[in-house]
Design a protein that fits this description.
The complex is a heterodimer of chains A (229) and B (73).
Chain A: E1 2-7, H1 14-22, E2 26-31, E3 42-45, H2 65-75, E4 80-83, H3 85-92, E5 99-101, E6 109-117, E7 133-140, E8 144-146, E9 155-159, E10 172-176, E11 182-185, H4 203-210, H5 217-220
Parallel strand pairs in A: 1-2, 1-3, 3-4, 4-11
Antiparallel strand pairs in A: 5-8, 6-7, 6-9, 9-10, 10-11
Chain B: E1 2-9, H1 16-27, E2 40-45, H2 52-60, E3 66-72
Antiparallel strand pairs in B: 1-2, 1-3
The chains are: A alpha/beta (229), B alpha+beta (73).
């Protein structure tokens, strides 16, 4: 299993994403000027400020040579995960429905949130069960998801009740395309792969891609347990 | 030709920037200010002005969340 992690000028979470992927397989960085993906089995479009977020977040990155290859890969059914700015890029590229608007508060939000797994039938959530709660951080200014007419089965992750950090429609934190092979989310699973930083729940998304079979239930013990306040 | 592209948040989409400005003006003593919206202005020299709407559709604006208007500068 080999992951490719995209690096644009202005990416800033690509190393954490790379290290998260390496917990479950091989992983390498893919520079935005490359035109092919080097035979990777899954692609991660990481967070940051690609091309300075000029014009709109993700708008310019979408036209990089590498993204053309990512779009072809996604259309052929390859698993693609977009995190935060990567989510914005995938929306701009038309691989995911909707758009990300400035947070309702107009403020940068950085906090740990609980997200609920609504759809475990994607390559990135199959190690989870519907209703699992994952503790992962968010950190963004442009995360208010808006997608008129999105289908219920495309909602993969939802902020737990009362934890919507940005005013996103219907508390949506992550969505997939109709086919289910492309997932975008605002929270950062790559920052939650080690208990040292408060939670390792985010690793389940990377594990899901690398280990197609559902893991033994014993390994799941503890996931979704909300820590006492 | 010098083209000017005016980009606005689509009607019905919450525009917290517009709201913030709308609330700030009365604080300065300006009364009767309503329906404030904040958008973007892009100016560009083009050989073929008929291409500008397509530029808007494909890059300058996001038609899902923004309306655009092209005027001659």
């Amino acid at each position: 299993m080999k992951f490719g992690v995209v690096r644009f000028p202005g990416s800033c979470d690509e190393i954490d994403a790379l290290l998260a992927c390496r917990r479950f397989g091989d992983a390498e960085l893919l520079w935005h000027k490359e035109r092919d993906l080097g035979g990777v089995d899954a692609v991660v479009v990481p967070g940051g400020f690609s091309y300075g977020d000029y014009l709109r977040a993700g708008a310019i990155a979408r036209f990089s040579p590498l993204m053309e290859a990512v779009i072809d890969f996604a259309r052929a059914g390859g698993p693609v995960l977009g995190i935060c700015n990567g989510f914005q890029v995938l929306c701009e590229a038309g691989l995911l429905p909707g758009a990300l608007l400035p947070n309702r508060s107009l403020r940068f939000v950085c906090r740990q949130v609980q997200v609920l797994v609504e759809n475990p039938d994607t390559p990135f959530t199959r190690a989870c069960e519907k209703g699992d709660l994952l503790s992962v951080p968010v950190k963004h200014t442009t995360g208010r998801y808006y997608a008129p007419g999105i289908l219920e089965e495309q909602v993969v992750l939802r902020y737990a009740p009362g934890q919507n950090p940005n005013g996103a429609q219907d508390d949506i934190a992550g969505v997939c395309n109709i086919e289910g092979n492309v997932l975008g989310l605002m929270p950062h699973p790559e920052h939650a792969v080690n208990p040292l930083t408060g939670s390792s729940d985010g690793s389940r998304l990377f594990e899901s891609v690398a280990v197609p079979e559902a893991p033994a239930s014993a390994e799941r013990a503890g996931v979704g347990v909300v820590p006492a306040a | 030709m010098r083209a000017r592209v005016l980009i606005r948040p689509k009607k019905g989409i919450l525009d917290p920037q517009g709201q913030a400005v709308e609330q700030a003006l009365p604080a300065l003593g300006f009364r009767g200010v309503r329906n404030v919206h904040v958008g973007r202005l892009i100016e560009l020299d083009v050989d073929d002005p008929s291409e500008v709407p397509e530029m808007c559709e494909r890059l300058l604006a996001n038609p899902l969340i923004e309306d655009y208007e092209v005027v001659e500068a």
